[in-house]
Amino acid sequence: MTDPENTVAVPGAPTEAVLDRDGLDELVRVLVRRGRTVIGPTVRDGAIVLDELESADALPYGWGVELEAGQYRVRRRADQAAFAHSAGPQSWKSFLHPERVRQWSAERRPDGVLSVRPEAPQSVSYAFLGVRPCDLRAIRILDRVMGGGRYRDPAYLSRRTGAFLIAVECTEPGATCFCVSMGTGPAADAGFDLALTEVVDAAGHRFLCRSGSPEGAAVLAELPRRDADEPTRAAAASAVSEAAERMGRSMPPVDLRTLMRDTLEAERWDDVTARCLSCGNCTMVCPTCFCTTTEDVTDLTGDHAERWRRWDSCYDLDFSLLHGGPVRATPRSRYRQWLTHKLGTWHDQFDSSGCVGCGRCIVWCPTGIDLTEEAHALHQEATRTESAP
Amino acid sequence: MTLAPLPYRVVDRRDETHDTVTLSLEPAGEALGPFAPGQFAMMYAFGVGEVPVSVSRIPDGQRLTHTVRAVGAVTRALWTLRTGAWVGMRGPFGTCWDLAAARGNDLLVIAGGIGIAPLRPAIDAVLAEPHGYGRLNVLAGARSPADLLYRNEFPTWERPFSTVTVDRPDDDWTGRVGVVTTLLGEAHFTPADTTALVCGPEVMMRATARDLIHRGVRPDRVQVSLERNMRCATGHCGHCQLGPLLLCRDGPVVGYDRAEPLLSVREL
């Protein structure tokens, strides 16, 4: 928690401090003054969503969530905690890798000559307040997918580069969470500008705040704060370690990449097909699902054309369409593609798992399909098959 | 330029068959980087859309040559383009035929249908350097005589063996009939020292690779060119996955040692 290697020292600036609620208010004000668009959690339409925050008052103080497979409910908490809730329907990809972006425009001049104008880079400067450790990892995964290969995506990088990340360690995991299995949480160890740990106890409601970058330290220096005290550190550390013990779900303790590779023909895929609607909700809410398709449009004159990119889902029949028909014609093959990519072949393509254990896909599946349950079932089937004579 | 297309003008069009055309293109200004045999470009038909198309010849200079078969909205729009028309081009993308690994080997170039198009630049490269390789065999299959591409070029490829076969002959056809693998018995090659370049429908490539490996060609020396849906060609859209592979990046040309386990799973 207070490992000095994970904090960044700036001469004269604090690396760790305790903030009260007014510190959080000022944090949002300072970021807005610095020209940042601050995005954070807020309650709207019966859910905790991510939206632009004009002040910290919009944070979901006193709200929690109840999660189960196929179920999401906000509920009032007994305390006034701001971050005692787990993942909502959105993730930060909505801002870094938006649902729809224009990639370029083209004109056909009267003589027929074509001229193409690439989209100008986005000038937004984001600050994300309340990034969970699982979602912090998801951003790192997207960094690799969209910006780490031979070709770097300018739409993503223009939003991501310079984004200010305020992580909030997880102290209230949901019934669908399994970040411990995926090694992504509940503690935040790196990759943030500031990290908060919320503490609510007899000594009051406060936030242990650590800086993880020079800009984080500079922002912290501008906030009303007091020195970090040992009781707050201890309370924060135990809140996070207790959260690790309260994960609602877990993955089978095996190498999931190998499990996916070796069970491509398992009978379990038929079982899940009976429940999967191929709706694609899991891919929309997943914080790392990045797939897109393109739309080419023209105006009424026919001489102005645009290329748009929008989110796509591997559950869509057209996703794998070739001359002659779709490669993945059955729902069985499409669910298998999603799960084996997420847990298996993502490693081959991008050097990590594509799953961060946030549980969103379990919550937002209309039929409550639970990928941890599917992984356990595949593991059991593989074990049975191995031990069969 | 990899994300936004560069304007290219159609400077020549040659009808190959009733539904297939070869377009020669020249850049308006900036040109795409050099292509290697087996690589592909994304071709944009104004306002209609974009499709991946392999280079079918690599002339000197900045000219690009692509052979397009009209099968969908975009390819139909490209197929109708006249000389002087404009298209948008991105590329080069993907892996190429590994001719460096084939040096000194006998070569089997095996095509099904329009699969001959991505192979033609490899044939050109081999013919340009006759002492770099062993014997060259070009075996091509097509549905019918009317579907045969580059027919007048086959005689120039007989070093020492080049022939075509069709599934459905017409009344004038005096050539061979049957699937392309039936030609293998006549080809001139020593299996242990042979590299095969194979492009065609997936079922044809599977059957061909199986036959070649059965005859003693090393699986990693059977190179196949795979096709999946492709939207971006830059590894970001996810459409071209085949198991662990992103075919715009790790393909289209893949050794059969890697392709075989993936192609043998239905609907992967």
From TrEMBL, chain A:
Keywords: Iron, Iron-sulfur, Metal-binding. One of its GO terms (molecular function) is iron-sulfur cluster binding. InterPro entries: 4Fe4S_Fe-S-bd, 4Fe4S_Fe_S_CS. This is 4Fe-4S dicluster containing protein. It comes from Streptomyces wuyuanensis. Residues 265-296, 346-374 form the 4Fe-4S ferredoxin-type domain. Pfam families: Fer4_22.
TrEMBL record, chain B:
Its cofactor is [2Fe-2S] cluster. Binds 1 [2Fe-2S] cluster per subunit. Keywords: 2Fe-2S, Iron, Iron-sulfur, Metal-binding. Coiled coil: none annotated. GO terms for biological process: pyrimidine nucleotide biosynthetic process. Residues 3-99 form the FAD-binding FR-type domain. SUPFAM superfamilies: Ferredoxin reductase-like, C-terminal NADP-linked domain (SSF52343), Riboflavin synthase domain-like (SSF63380). InterPro entries: Cyt_c3_hydrogenase_gsu, Dihydroorotate_DH_Fe-S-bd, FAD-bd_FR_type, FNR_nucleotide-bd, OxRdtase_FAD/NAD-bd, PyrK_electron_transfer, Riboflavin_synthase-like_b-brl. [2Fe-2S] cluster binds at residues 232, 237, 240, 248. GO terms for molecular function: 2 iron, 2 sulfur cluster binding; flavin adenine dinucleotide binding; metal ion binding; oxidoreductase activity. This is NAD(P)H-flavin reductase. It comes from Streptomyces wuyuanensis. The lineage of its organism: Bacteria, Bacillati, Actinomycetota, Actinomycetes, Kitasatosporales.
